[in-house]
Amino acid sequence: MRDLMNTEPDNSADPTPTVDRPTLALVLGSGGTAGGAFHAGVLKALHDVWNIDPRDAHTIIGTSAGALTGALVAAGMSADDIFRRETGKPLSSEGAELLNMARARIGERRTARSSMGVPAAPEILSHVLLRPWGVSPATVAAALLPRGTVPTSAVEGLTSGLLDGRWPASPRLRVCAVEMTTGRRVVFDETSQVLPSLAIAASCAVPGVFVPVTIDGREYFDGATHSSDNLDVLRHEQPRIVLVSSPMSTDRVANRPGPWSGLRAATRVQTSQERRRLGRNMRVEIIRPSADDLDAMGSNMLDPRRRPAVAMQAYSTASEILRRLDPPELTHAGHQ
User: Fold this and answer.
1) What's the CA gap between 44 and 27, in Å, rounded?
2) Which of 263, 222, 221 is nearest to 246 (CA)?
């Protein structure tokens, strides 16, 4: 197996445009249960307002909740069915069949392990001393939390059923996680020689909540500890348009004091910085939660009871934003 710790080299120069460059990239950020519902509303708005099927994307960058939503899209689930799944409505026959087949892989849920309150990866401090600017403060804090106790078996089972153990060819799915002891971001994809279900489970392993995922002898957790959106993963690609669904961000007007306000402000800044690292030829549209979205999400991003309200409000917010923008002219892949 090749070294999973290799990451793409930094290159601030703009990539050279090509005639047949990919048309659309989706960046689906973190956000827990509420984040998945937010993505559902954004993707349905993309389809209904701009007449773009998310399954026609060339690339999907998924982090945490966004990795799971990305797997649904890459497996062939329509935006309408993803929205129906979040709002508790009946799925189409095709969507129901796909989801039922995937659920059959979940199997028995494994028992959570006790963390005993010990920091999960105190070794990260030595890596910080060696490269103090190479590890984000959020990653350091996450590694020093006690190990999570909730197994990721349900995520592994569901995504194994969705993707049948294979990385999808189209859309190309790329999943962000963090190696726990070094704090390095790793982008898993079809070149990684890793099962996609393990990569997605690692990306979803919220520190202090879920048990870290072991891949090739190394432990990984939530890619959001490095960046909520990981937009800069696209810096060497050339999509004509990038649509970012950023549940953990917000604009300055919508943000208000609360348990997530500081993180949302930091996410807004970081995603904007990552945007500046992309080529100038890319059109990037970022969908951030409005004040109404924040009200729908509440203070607990893992509360499943809020999924319908979050999805419906996100659909309204994203629809309003997309109607104000000129839709791109893209070549569709036949999912309309």
Assistant:
1) 15
2) 263
Q: Which pair of tokens denotes residue 174?
A: 């790329």
DSSP type of residue 42: H
∠ CA 35-97-206, rounded to 5°: 25
Tokens of 276: 């500046």
Percent of the chain's residues with pLDDT above 90: 60
What are the helix (H) ranges across the chain? 32-50, 65-75, 79-87, 93-103, 124-130, 137-143, 153-163, 196-204, 261-276, 291-297, 307-323
Write down the pLDDT at residue 119.
57
Taking 70 as the threshold, does the pLDDT of residue 112 lie above it?
no
| pLDDT 10s digits, 196-255 | 999 999 999 998 888 899 999 999 999 999 999 999 999 888 788 999 999 999 987 777
**Cα angle: 111, vertex 113, 117; to 5 degrees:** 155
Hey, what's the torsion of the CAs at 84, 87, 88, 90, to 10 degrees? -20
- How far is the CA of 196 from the CAs of 43, 68, 126, 193, 322, in angstroms? 22, 10, 30, 9, 31
